User: What shape does this take?
Amino acid sequence: MKFQKKLLILALMGLPVGSAFADGIVSSAESDAKAVGSTIDNGAKDVVKDVDNFLDDGSNGPFTGAYVGLKTGINDSKMQVGNTTAPGGTAGNYQQNYGADVGAEAGYAWKLGSTVLGLDATYNYNGTGRYGSLANSSSGIPTYGSHDYALGLKFGIPVSDTLMPYAKLGYGRLTGTGAANGFAANGINGGLGLEYLFAPHWSVAGEWNNMSASNNNNTLNNNTYTVGVNYYFSAAKPHHVAAAPAPAPVAAPVAAEPAPAPAPVDRWRMITEEKPVHLDGANFKTNSAVLNKTSDEKLTQVVDFSKQYPEADVQVSGYTDSTGSKAYNLKLSQRRADAVKAYLVKHGVAADRVHTKGYGMENPVASNKTVEGRAQNRHVEVNYVVREEKKVRVMQ
Assistant: This one.
């Protein structure tokens, strides 16, 4: 995570530094130094905050985080001998092979708004099978197969929490086996697929992939059609709110022998009183779990309150408006509650004191029929139970 954060900060810092340099050319020398220094400092703070928000939320969602997978299917290989212009070419030079395909892949994907972008590495072994020639199907063309390795980008657009069409584009290496032994070349790799998340960590995907490479006037073109299973390591796990401890039982008074009633005397004793406290935590933009800048003031009150009552547990409840599906809003509200917890922990509140739960679109505080009402419903509530000792007078 630290390495990713450094790369993103260096890339995004180019904009404020370039702006500051341009402003300095127009200003005087003394104004230059102040303007550039101020702009760089402010720009750096904004970039660091944006990167923190991106990394906190980037791998939180379906089809994101690190993953590995296995796949199998069929391969359609076309070997063009002596002509690099087309996979078909002159009849007699075109050799086609159908065989089994097995492969593996691994990668890492980030959530970017409503899309998913990942870095994907793949390997395929393409075996031999039925083969022939356009000129003479019984010409006895020797069998061949291939290996291909590729590294590229995976771009997906989830249409729900469980279904995502995607495209791949990258660059790789294709090597021949059997009669094509000795053929090796680099080429473009690309494909299309559809992925279905059937469990929190597991998905199944159907994919078409193409890779073509040329070497010494020979061209090898591979089309693979596969079905595979992927495992995501960082799938979200359900959060549980810890139950409040049950109050200690109070022992019943033991009956005593009757005695003469003493004269009334003023006495004092201490009793424990539970006092619930409710605070609004933060509000969010539509379809987002990133804290608004205006939330800092509210959350500062929560941090101060936590320091004043270090024995109190903090219950953080996340909510959404009525936009979107019930299942998606339930996950989004949990991410909002987790975002508030991350803020509190970052500012000194012990993590084991903060318990989170998302309630989706339950318990709206305003009407979801208006823009203003939906904005109020996209919020997080913070609740405490404070136990205070109170001195009371008793008569005996």
About this structure: The chain has a mean pLDDT of 76. The chain has six helices and 13 strands. The domain at 65-232 is CATH 2.40.160.20 (Porin).
